[in-house]
Design a protein that fits this description.
mainly alpha
Length: about 280
């Protein structure tokens, strides 16, 4: 009966974990639910195997009823985890498609942009939650940061120095080369953000918008994500793409309600008369 009580406590703790979407992956939660179900079956077999004396010692037929209730709760929690996983996958797919459509539209506005060379938009957060793979919720902000490659910091500092010196075209080119050379590195999001600033200062607003879009899509939960999304919305407004600008600015507040960028986005939305 003590083991049965521990099992019930584990179930009580599992429910809020699912509701809150904590750092655990859905796959690990489902694995724990499976382990609890296995433990429950083992207890049931042990109880039945003990015969009448064992049943009386466990608390009588009420023990079996409690085990049935726990088993039903396990089934419900497993179904909830599957529903949550499907919902996350739909949100990831929808958000990725929206960013992809926006990238094509920005390419149409940017002089010299070849739509045929616009690559596929990476899945937000590095990918949807795999059914059996264990992708973590908020994967973009968990785990140890990758180490810098040799000369990566020096190349980044060289591009940033050009930006600070007002050499905007050169800075944009250096940051573009940096992102190609060190794709997925720890400084990639910063490089994309500063590249957007350089392009905007050079008068290429559409190119700046694409840079911020790519920076956000590559790390939608990273430290540069709120600013990148804010600057993307501002650039879209400058390009007279007001509905798209309002959509991006709305996302800033929804995704990052405590960030300073959210306050700026709200003020900008009022200026644009966003609905």
């Amino acid at each position: 009966m003590r083991r049965l009580g521990v099992l019930a406590v584990c179930l009580a703790l599992a429910s809020p974990a699912l509701a809150q979407g904590n750092a655990q992956s859905l796959a690990s939660i489902r694995a724990e639910l499976g382990a609890l179900a296995t433990a429950l079956e083992g207890l049931r077999a042990e109880l039945i195997g003990g015969g009448g004396a064992g049943l009386v010692a466990a608390g009588g037929v009420g023990a079996l009823a409690r085990m049935d209730a726990i088993e039903a709760a396990l089934v419900r929690l497993t179904a909830q985890s599957e529903a949550l996983e499907n919902r996350i996958n739909r949100v990831v797919a929808d958000g990725t498609n929206r960013l992809g459509d926006l990238e094509f539209r920005l390419c149409e506005l940017e002089p010299g942009c070849d739509i045929s060379k616009v690559g596929a938009t990476p899945l937000l957060g590095g990918g949807a939650v795999a059914a059996n793979g264990g992708g973590a919720i908020g994967a973009g902000v968990t785990g140890a940061a990758p180490a810098l490659a040799m000369s990566e910091q020096a190349d980044f500092d060289r591009a940033k120095a050009a930006l600070d010196a007002g050499e905007y075209a050169r800075a944009a080119e250096l940051f573009a080369v940096f992102n190609t050379t060190y794709t997925g590195g720890p400084l990639t999001a910063d490089a994309q953000f500063y590249r957007g600033q350089a392009l905007q200062a050079a008068g290429d607003v559409a190119g700046a918008a694409r840079a911020w879009l790519e920076g956000f899509a590559g790390a939608p939960d990273g430290p540069r994500a709120p600013e990148s999304l804010l600057m993307l919305g501002r650039a879209l407004a400058d390009l007279q793409q007001v509905p798209e600008a309002c959509a991006m600015l709305t996302e800033v507040g929804l995704r990052f309600p405590g960030a300073a960028a959210a306050t700026e986005a709200g003020a900008m939305m009022r200026t644009l008369n966003c609905q």
